[in-house]
Give the backbone structure.
Amino acid sequence: MEPVLQGNSLISAEELVGHRFTRPELLAEALTHRSAAHARPGRAPKGWGSNERLEFVGDRVLGLVMAEWLLERFPREQEGDLGPRLAELVSRHTLVGIAERIGLSSRLSVADNEAKAGVKTLATVLADAVEAVIGAIFLDAGLDPARRFIRNAWGDLIVSQINPPKDPKTGLQEWGLARGLGLPVYRVEKNVGPSHAPRFTISVRLGGQSAEAEAGTKREAERLAAILLLGRLR
């Protein structure tokens, strides 16, 4: 499988994200699903691969830029309100909405069999691609262009976020009660590690759906699991 971004396709993708790349191979990598990377062993130019490494970088850049933006926009709020705002703005369902809004799915390179299976529409694939694009812009040109992309893409969302989102556990509980599904059920699946550095894996179930998350405290693992399940239910 050959790289999907060449010639006019590359220019079109650059216009889509609003950044002209000095190293266009970074954008191509950001839009390459691991299935496509694995489908061309030994044939890819040096530096080509899946977007997983760029997604790792973009996740951190997004968190930094968004935290900076929230401090600027809500100067009187403390961590208790800023935290839920940040969690909502960098959540998977928000990232998927960004990907759909800018048409990122049409530019993703996936293996033929995965494309037929609908991989381009999966929430995880779309969310990872958005973060990978952010990572690519950051590595290509630095923080300012990455910040510009994020503020353009998230502008309407942060303006509309007048009140802090509810705690995800409260939000999940209210979502279930409003639909007659009862209360979510949390369960400790794993508790590993030494007493000074434990790791808890918590599952939560509601309405026939479930999610699981891991963290250093039960409270944080429950919060993360609630965020994941809310994203799936919505």
